[in-house]
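[Target chain]
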Amino acid sequence: MPHLLLTAFHYPPEISGGVPRALLFEDFFIRRGWRVTVLTPQERDSGVKGGDILRVPLPGYLAPKKSGGATGGAGAGKSRLKSFAKKYVALPDVFAPWALAAARMALEFARNNPVDLVLTSSPPESAHWIGWRLARACGCKWLVDYRDGWTFEPHREEAKIFGRRVVERWLEKKVLRRCDWITAATRPIAEDLREKIADAGKVKFLATGYDSGVPSARGADNNYFRLMYTGRFSLSHKVRTPAVFVEGMKAALTAEADFARDFRLVLVGDYSAEEKNLWSGAPLSGCVEFMGQRPYAEALSLSAGADMLLLVTPPGLKSIATRKIFDYLKARRPVLALAEGNEAERIVAETGCGVCVSPVDSGAVAAELLRCYRLWKDRKLNAEYACEHNGLYEAEPLFQKIIGPIADSFTPAITGR
């Protein structure tokens, strides 16, 4: 059988936006009869979808921080040194040392376990070094996957420094020219990549989508208009904060007594102290419920039981869709999206799953909250946003269309090997 080496920096038990896409790739190839080996720093004995695990742990200085560390003195000095290295030394990102070690282990592994296809997904962009090394040394095919842009609307602040930007553009072009196929999670990223290479046909738009199945609804409460948000606000993009939504919510609570009585904002996730402070004090504290971080499946069920789901995107970044929007599409609940001129707004309009307002206009947020509340009160909210086109983003057909031909192209060669 053909053999895929799937580089999945983000993989369970980690909880992050990059995990579901890795699982969808693993599941797709497993079900098509491939052997899949997942190369990851995460600690697991076996793959979630049936693959094997090839683990390369993170170096100690890159491991997740533990509480109780030093905050001053020598600790502060080390922090400044790490900050300097992150900005001016580590290329293309701070995880390059892990990628170098992972590439060495992958090459050693491939000597006894021939690899037909290596798939590398970014961020982190350094993961593509693994594909580069294997493709050159072993002659295997290489699929590069972009969940976020690299030099287009970069998610890393240091990537915007002029000197780095020049070098990273050069590195990106090297990767794009050397690989065999490229997939991009949003249309704007795919369009940008097509402009960077001569063979634009090898770039394909592949939305992450959601896996099949409808989550069972939990936590429904007909006594309140429950708007739910799952996950972190600023984990990937520091400019994605709930501040504008908070101001709009305050205005709506002040403007209409019935709304203040019936409205509840339910937050499911791990939030920073700064984010929690935004919800403190009247009139917010009485209508905000913190449910803490929950397992992924439970969070989906809670979303399916909400009256409406909240999506917040940063302004000025047209490639942003967020992984969350596909979870919301799967939950099949109406969506209130703070999104304008980006991929998230396009998906909401395409599916008819909800309504979008400007992420910088708190007055528009207040007006839309009150309008949706009135629809809920009149029992018309579900009819207004029936979510009947959410199935456009079910992952299986999307992956079959784009990845299916790639997988099938290996069958004759493997059969005759």
The CA atoms of residues 250 and 283 lie 7 Å apart.
